[in-house]
Amino acid sequence: MIYIQRLVILSCLCLLASCSGNQKVKDSQLALMKTTNPNPIMTDRDKNTNRVQEIEKAVSSFPEIYDAAVIKGKKETLVVYKVKHSHRFKMKKIEKNLTKFLNKRFPKENITVSSDYKIFLEAVRLNERIESKKFSDQKAEKRLGEIIKMTEEMT
Q1: What is the CATH number of the domain that holds 138?
Q2: Which range is the signal sequence, renumbered to this chain (predicted)?
Q3: Alpha-carbon separation of residue 13 from 9, 72, 142 (angstroms)
Q4: N or C terminus: fewer CB in 10 A for the chain?
Q5: Is it the case that residue 104 has pLDDT exceeding 60?
């Protein structure tokens, strides 16, 4: 009886180990547990990406922020970030300072800033879809608009 139990347990472990092999894990699946730092991306792939990279560097320069995603559309730019755990009590102040800093440094950009995890996750997913070419520029722009609308509804 004991041998049968051990055999069943051993076979279950082998089965579980074989099921998890060679699966690529997306950043969006691990976004809560680790730093993803997705590349800044634009929904309009034909444009120059220097401005988006400048925005991403500016956001990353804040010592309280450890992970950020920047997605630039035709009219709007979404900046989402995660705050270090020791600074969580000052999130409103950090968001206010970051918004003020970005609006002062990039006055011609229409920037939406959010520290909400759900928005961060949606931005990372959109980033993955754009990079994998699963979304056309029009679909990506539409989805970016929906995500920005979600940020406005949450405030």
Answers
A1: 3.30.70.1350
A2: 1-23
A3: 6, 46, 45
A4: N
A5: yes
